[in-house]
């Protein structure tokens, strides 16, 4: 009987310890979430950060990408450099449609 009580107490202790081990520490999670949310919020004034540039100001790496068939008519497009120099936006008009393409600072296309 004594062994049964000790065995029961041991199993009960391990069960309670296992339940508390799975509980998350809410204080550390709140701090991490706030930090991530603050970094990932997009800017609402992105249009104000765009600076229109001339065709001559386009870097060579971007020019070489624009030679592809997908960017046909880019010579007559409108070009923007993001104010923080993170990339470029190219707007190409095809009739009444406007195609917009995004590129990083090195001229690599950024998928939509």
From TrEMBL:
Highest taxon of the lineage: Bacteria
Signal peptide: 1-21
Keywords, alphabetical: Signal
Protein name: PepSY domain-containing protein
């Amino acid at each position: 009987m004594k062994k049964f009580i000790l065995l029961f107490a041991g199993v009960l202790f391990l069960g309670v310890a296992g339940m508390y081990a799975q509980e998350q520490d809410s204080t550390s999670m709140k701090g991490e979430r706030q930090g991530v949310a603050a970094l990932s919020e997009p800017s609402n004034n992105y249009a104000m950060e765009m600076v229109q540039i001339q065709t001559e100001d386009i870097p060579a790496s971007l020019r070489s990408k624009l030679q592809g068939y997908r960017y046909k008519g880019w010579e007559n497009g409108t070009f923007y450099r993001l104010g923080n120099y993170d990339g470029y936006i190219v707007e190409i008009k095809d009739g009444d449609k406007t195609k917009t393409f995004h590129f990083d600072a090195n001229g690599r296309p950024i998928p939509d």
